[in-house]
Write a structure and sequence with these properties.
Strand order of the largest sheet of chain B: 2-1-3-4-5
Number of domains of chain A: 2
CATH class of the largest domain in chain B: Alpha Beta
Number of helices of chain B: 21
Shape of chain A: elongated
Largest sheet of chain A: 10 strands, mixed
CATH topology of the largest domain in chain B: Rossmann fold
Strand content of chain A: 25-35%
Distance between the termini of chain B: 47 Å
Number of strands of chain B: 18
CATH architecture of the largest domain in chain B: 3-Layer(aba) Sandwich
Helix content of chain B: 25-40%
Order of helices and strands of chain A: EHEEHEEHEEEEHEEE
Oligomer: heterodimer
Distance between the termini of chain A: 29 Å
Structural class of chain A: alpha+beta
Number of strands of chain A: 12
Number of helices of chain A: 4
Strand content of chain B: 5-15%
Chain lengths: 266, 650
């Protein structure tokens, strides 16, 4: 059996795809693309696919990972091309590489999130973030299937910074009525590196903490994107051309990079 | 004029609703065309496209897989001069968000406002979608009352089986199309196109007249209904010259010419049916007297084995679905079903593609078929539909199967390795007694007893699923009294306790039923006339939504609103449901022609009461139901003698 690692993105309106929805769409895309999947044995055979912690529904992502098992060998780049063509635009396959012995899950220590806060001024966001980072802990409540659960949103945050606020129209072009000029509003951008813990701290937990513990007035809807996942690396960049995303000097190493000749685009 | 997508306004609100994926569209094989230039060829003057918004009036998860909507969506979009988009009922949480932010009912394809389309086509497989129609109209900014609509509003067209009696929604729709939609939708499109190109002569009224005079659709506003003092209908008459006295259904002949869906939609969201469905034939002449579908879709028209094979091959490749459903009203009756099942099972052996037939008649041959279809090893459940619990009852409904046949068939199923058998029944059938229903328990006991012997093991199960019978228009039972829900519930409770208290077999028998009250509302909406429209409207204004969902349905609300609307009138909820009609009564749908001869239906109703059965006209001489001669149609069945060849390896 050939094991392949797949990095994919969830973009635009398809960020509302839940993990279950994605899994179903992915299995169908595998069949349409003619990928010769290996199946589990037993009464109800399933194609061999294993996922690494998926981003929450409604959160966009540039860095989701999974592993597939093939019954016959295929060129990873052909699989990437065929799968990407079989998936709807917005569910995009970024890279496919041969799997390594060490598991995919072991290569994910932390996640890099970008949170856009329309209507929030940069200075307000920065002040709130400073208050948040000064806290020893920031317990927040999250509704779960079994009721409410309290999670510390602070400890898992390894690094955070507010980027220069962008001016963003409250709605994308085309939404406003003809002749009407959409007023521009500030939009603070918060970048976070969050360590993978159990239970996982999600970006919206941090936003809740900023609101509750750091008195930030947050908008109803935030746009969250996962930009990277991987192992933590706090060494200085090897070259100036190194574009590995970094927050506060902490970088994440793409789980797929360690495999020779498999540096993904992007 | 370009029409703006509402998506930019919708998107920031989506995190606030449940399952937002159902509102974003983007399904595989969905189509978004340019509003003014659907062909993408530039816009020659005077070639304004015809724009359809197609709706299935239930939640996306139920509506998306609907075959009718998918067929019309694909068929209409194949034309360069047509734009067809889809819309579904939004859940109450989304409705609240849309009202709060002034977002209109939108299509999931282009997120265009439904009110901007030319035709708003709504497919009703069940009458319980009527309140959802009102929600969609209201959110779309289309006046609920057709009489209040102006030239700027779409024409609202109902289709689907419920359109064979659209009288309860007559005030809310502009037109109804009866029967098969393929040719009718194209013809309606041509009429709309010609009218638009001619400069829309006489506006909305002019278009509706063209539709009515052509006969492609029934336009309720062009008919007056007069009532007798006792509440019955006196007559239904056209109120315009040129409008036909009766409007006929449409029948597509030669299904091989219409191999749709070719490229079915593949949703991201989870839906109720996740499979490639191919209709292997349309129509049914088994003659089950309760079955509206079997009566209004005559005659039987088979799709040939080779077309079925081609459709499955293309459909699987285009979708990646793992399951294929061979649909029809009684799939085992296809003249070449054995060859189809074997051919498909051979083709997809080892491919993890499973094949399924919907619930089948009780017939030993069906076990052979099911064995073939489950060749890959999964033998979980088989479903049969004896419908009537006693042999007498099955004679009344013309479901020709004896108790011994049934037991033998089911025992064979267990003997062939099937562990679970599901049996469908109805309660409240005409002439039914308490004893007829209690015999279901006896039958289930015999099924388990014989099944254990045949299987040589004790861990087999039988599930009994029971629905309350609702008399439907255009069936021999259209005159029958519907059984009140108290008696239905009493009979079902007694049956359940008899089954559960059985020491030997009770634990091997499961029993599932719903209370009888929703069926009374379904009965009101099925056999109602135009006066029922006011009840639907009042229920909707009172908050009624999603009446097909038990968590949303409120019988109390329907009962209260019906009592309010019908106060001081000769009619009532009971009058429409539990009252038996006689031959002389003008029925609300008499001017709508399903092809069935009313005298034949009455005779068949009398035969039912006398427990006289009638054979299938595919194998015995014609019994003059009237459909073929009146509609200019004929039975189209095989065998063709052709075979499915193995697929060549690509």
């Amino acid at each position: 059996m050939q094991r392949l690692w797949v990095r994919y993105a969830k973009r635009g309106r398809l960020r509302f795809t839940s993990h279950r929805d994605f899994a179903r769409a992915f299995e169908r895309a595998l069949r349409r693309a003619g990928v010769p999947m290996a199946y589990s044995a037993g009464f109800s055979p399933h194609p061999k696919i294993s996922y690494v912690g998926a981003a929450p529904t409604g959160v966009a992502s540039e860095a989701e990972y999974l592993e597939i098992g093939l019954a016959e060998r295929r060129d990873p780049d052909e699989v990437r091309r065929d799968l990407d063509a079989a998936l709807p635009p917005g569910l995009d396959v970024i890279a496919v590489v041969e799997a390594d012995q060490r598991g995919l899950a072991d290569r994910v220590e932390a996640s890099y999130w970008r949170i856009e806060l329309p209507g929030v001024a940069e200075t307000d966001a920065r002040a709130a973030l400073d208050r948040f980072l000064a806290l020893a802990s920031a317990p927040v409540e999250r509704a779960t299937k079994d009721g409410h659960r309290t999670i510390d949103a602070r400890a898992a945050v390894l690094a955070a910074e507010v980027l220069a606020a962008q001016v963003r129209s409250p709605a994308p072009p085309g939404a406003s009525q003809p002749g009407e000029t959409a007023p521009n509003v500030p939009c603070a951008i918060l970048d976070l590196v969050v360590r993978l813990t159990t239970p996982a701290v999600r970006p919206d937990d941090v936003v809740t903490a900023l609101r509750q513990a750091a008195a930030l007035s947050t908008p109803d809807t935030t746009l969250v994107t996962r930009l990277a996942q991987g192992r933590l690396d706090d060494s200085p960049p090897a070259t100036d051309a190194d574009e590995t995303p970094a927050v506060g000097g902490i970088r994440l190493i793409d789980p797929l990079v360690a495999n020779a000749g498999a540096v993904p685009p992007n | 004029m370009p029409v703006e997508s509402v998506f930019a306004r919708l998107e920031p609100l989506l995190p606030r609703v449940q399952k937002p994926i159902q509102y974003v569209g983007g399904e595989l094989h969905s189509v978004v065309k340019d509003w003014d230039d659907p062909a993408g060829m530039g816009t020659p003057a005077g070639s304004e496209p015809v724009r359809w918004a197609l709706m299935y009036p239930d939640a996306y998860e139920v509506g998306l897989p609907n075959q009718g909507v998918q067929i019309l969506y694909e068929l209409l979009n194949e034309r360069d001069d047509v734009i067809a988009e889809r819309t579904y009922s939004v859940w109450p949480d989304m409705e609240a968000v849309m009202r709060e932010h002034g977002i209109p009912q939108f299509t999931v394809d282009g997120h265009r406002p439904v009110g901007a389309f030319d035709v708003f086509g709504v497919s009703f497989s069940t009458e319980l979608g009527y309140t959802n129609l009102l929600t969609a109209l209201d959110l779309a900014g289309i006046p609920l009352d057709a009489a209040d609509r102006t030239d700027g509003h779409p024409i609202v067209v109902a289709g689907g089986h419920a359109a064979f009696n659209p009288e309860p929604i007559a005030t809310f729709i502009d037109a109804a199309v009866l029967g098969d939609g393929e040719e009718a939708a194209l013809r309606l499109t041509d009429i709309v196109r010609d009218w638009k190109r001619a400069g829309r002569p006489d506006g909305r009224d002019g278009l509706l007249m063209r539709l009515a005079v052509d006969g492609v659709a029934y336009v309720p506003a062009f008919y007056d209904v007069d009532y007798l003092a006792d509440g019955r209908i006196q007559r239904v008459t056209p109120n315009r010259p040129g409008v036909p006295w009766r409007v006929s259904k449409h029948t597509v002949m030669d299904l091989d010419q219409w191999p749709y869906p070719k490229k079915p939609l593949v949703p991201l969201a989870e839906t109720v049916h996740e499979r490639y469905s191919v209709e292997i034939f349309r129509g049914c002449t088994r003659g089950c007297r309760f079955c509206q579908a079997g009566m209004i879709t005559r005659p039987v028209r088979e799709r040939s084995i080779t077309t079925v094979g081609d459709m499955v091959q293309r459909g699987i490749a285009a979708t990646g679905f793992e399951e294929v459903g061979l649909l029809s009203l009684s799939s085992a009756d296809h003249s070449e079903i054995g060859e189809i099942a074997k051919g498909l099972a051979d083709r997809y052996d080892g491919d993890n593609v499973s094949l399924s037939l919907p619930s089948t008649r009780v017939d030993a041959f069906n076990i052979t078929l099911a064995n073939e279809l489950s060749r890959n090893g999964r033998r979980t459940g088989l479903t049969f539909a004896p419908e009537g619990g006693s042999e007498r009852m099955r004679k009344v409904i013309n479901k020709m199967v004896t108790e011994d046949d049934l037991i033998r068939t089911v025992a064979t199923a267990y003997g062939n390795g099937w562990r679970q058998v599901k049996l469908y029944f109805m309660c409240g059938l005409p002439t039914e007694t308490d004893d007829d229903v209690m015999q279901i328990a006896d039958m289930a006991r015999r099924v388990i007893k014989t099944g254990r012997e045949a299987a040589g093991r004790k861990d087999i199960r039988c599930t009994i699923s029971i629905g309350a019978f609702v008399p439907k228009p255009h069936t021999p039972f259209q005159w029958a009294a519907q059984l009140d829900h108290e008696t239905v519930d009493k009979r079902l409770k007694a049956l359940k306790s008899a089954v559960m208290n059985d020491r030997d077999y009770g634990r091997a028998i499961g029993i599932r039923y719903h209370d009888g009250r929703p069926s009374i509302v379904e009965g009101l909406l099925s056999r109602g006339d135009r006066r029922v429209g006011a009840v639907i409207r009042r229920v909707w204004e009172d908050g009624g939504r999603f009446d097909g969902w038990s968590e949303h349905f409120s019988y109390e609300r329907w009962e209260r609103c019906a009592a309010g609307v019908f106060a001081d009138t000769p009619v009532s909820l009971d009058w429409f449901t539990t009252r038996e009609r006689d031959l002389a009564e003008v029925l609300p749908w008499d001017h709508l022609d399903s092809g069935l001869d009313k005298d034949w239906m009455w005779a068949d109703w009398q035969d039912a009461v006398r427990e006289v059965e009638v054979d299938d006209c595919r194998w015995t001489p014609c019994y003059d139901c009237g459909v073929c001669p009146s509609q200019g149609t004929e039975i189209q069945v095989g065998p063709t003698g052709r075979q499915l060849l193995p697929l060549s390896v690509v």
